[in-house]
From TrEMBL:
<dbReference type="Pfam" id="PF01230">
    <property type="entry name" value="HIT"/>
</dbReference>
<keyword id="KW-0547">Nucleotide-binding</keyword>
<dbReference type="GO" id="GO:0000166">
    <property type="term" value="F:nucleotide binding"/>
</dbReference>
<dbReference type="InterPro" id="IPR036265">
    <property type="entry name" value="HIT-like_sf"/>
</dbReference>
<feature type="domain" description="HIT">
    <location>
        <begin position="164"/>
        <end position="271"/>
    </location>
</feature>
<feature type="binding site">
    <location>
        <position position="260"/>
    </location>
    <ligand>
        <name>substrate</name>
    </ligand>
</feature>
<dbReference type="InterPro" id="IPR052908">
    <property type="entry name" value="AP-4-A_phosphorylase"/>
</dbReference>
<dbReference type="GO" id="GO:0003824">
    <property type="term" value="F:catalytic activity"/>
</dbReference>
<dbReference type="InterPro" id="IPR011146">
    <property type="entry name" value="HIT-like"/>
</dbReference>
<dbReference type="InterPro" id="IPR039383">
    <property type="entry name" value="FHIT"/>
</dbReference>
<dbReference type="Pfam" id="PF13489">
    <property type="entry name" value="Methyltransf_23"/>
</dbReference>
<protein>
    <submittedName>
        <fullName>HIT domain-containing protein</fullName>
    </submittedName>
</protein>
<dbReference type="InterPro" id="IPR029063">
    <property type="entry name" value="SAM-dependent_MTases_sf"/>
</dbReference>
Amino acid sequence: MNEHQNSNSHLTAKERSTPSLPVRMLLERKLIQGKVLDFGCGFGKDVNHLLIKGFDAKGFDPYYYPEFPTEKFDTILCFYVLNVLFPEEQNRVLMQISQLLKPSGKAYFAVRRDISKDGFRTHQVHGKPTYQCYVKLPYKSIFLNENTEFYEYQHWNKVVEADSKCPFCKPNPALHLLAETPLSYAVLDGYPVAKGHALIVPKRHVANYFELTFDEQKDLVQLSTFVQQMLKSQYHTNDFTFGMNIGKNAGQRIDHATIHLIPRFKGDCANPKGGVRNILNK
């Protein structure tokens, strides 16, 4: 199999007659609340169990239940999905789940801890190559043994406790978080210059974008692309201004790198043809 293809990840879904260990444990701890989404639900056995228990639950799986949800959820479950995805695919799942989670909601991830080596291996049942990898998340760990670890996730601006005066290190809980990865987050600007004005922000406190690591820069680009698609759908425009201010002479007021993503509309300025070339005009 080509190292850039991961077309057999769905084969790792298991048929089961009983609910999974993560869902049993979360039910015992009364952590599953409100409207529930099982993201990457496979054959949907946990969803069926939750429905029998009286929960308002639904499942999404790109292969088995491919209708992507349009509403938001109080609880999102994601069990043993990330271990079979490439890093960029993992990031996309994390962004989608953060997008679908209500501001007050919580998501729970289960990952395997018995994987010693990343890579493709032949599936014992299907005889096809499937990818598996070790995954560590920067979220609250609520259970760990030699085989599995469970994490609890909330939106970054609801849980961060940074001892900092930087508004980007400790974002206002009232801000509308659009999506998030382990390295960066996106919110609607609290002082927008246009409707839909979004900020894409690295979580690490670095003033100059070019001093971020390549992984952080790459992460910001992926998150920016994801958010652009969200804004494009919501505000029905293909036009955007995308950029950043680096240094005081360029207009940077806070020493924390940020990317501005601003939807643009016909008639929103006198001379749009000038673009960024107009910024130095006297």
